[in-house]
Amino acid sequence: MNSLTTEALEKGKIAVELTPEEALALTGVKFNGNPEVTAEARRKIRKAFEKTFDFQCQDRLD
């Protein structure tokens, strides 16, 4: 089960700093000249979640 840090529970928010292009890319705007814009925005969000939330892996039975 995932456990949340106390600070994350109190605020109920995470903060991510995105460039205007990254923010637009997350809304669905395509940047044909630079397809890495969307990927970078998603990386920033994933990193912010990883810093805020404590993800614990559980062993799976196959």
Notes on the protein architecture:
The structure is a single chain. The longest helix is centred in the last third of the chain and has 17 residues, at 36-52. The protein has a two-stranded antiparallel ribbon with strand order 1-2. The protein has helices spanning 6-11, 20-27, 36-52; strands at residues 3-4, 53-54. With 62 residues, the chain is mainly alpha-helical. The radius of gyration is 15 Å and the shape is elongated. Helix 2 packs across helix 3. It has 3 helices and 2 strands, in the order βαααβ.
Major β-sheet profile:
2 strands, antiparallel
- Helix fraction, binned, reads 40-55%
Radius of gyration: 15 Å
Mean pLDDT: 80
Number of E-type strands: 2
User: What would the principal axes of the Cα set say about the shape?
Assistant: elongated
Instruction: Give, in spatial order, the strands making up the sheet with the most strands.
Output: 1-2
Unreliable spans: none
Measure the end-to-end span. Answer: 18 Å
How many individual helices?
3
Beta-strand residue percentage: 5-15%
Q: Structural class from helices and strands?
A: mainly alpha
Order of helices and strands: EHHHE
Topology overview:
Elements: E1 3-4, H1 6-11, H2 20-27, H3 36-52, E2 53-54
Antiparallel strand pairs: 1-2
Helix pairs in contact: 2-3
Compact description:
Helix content is 50%, strand content 6%.
Task: List descriptors.
62 residues, mainly alpha, 2 strands, 50% helix, 6% strand
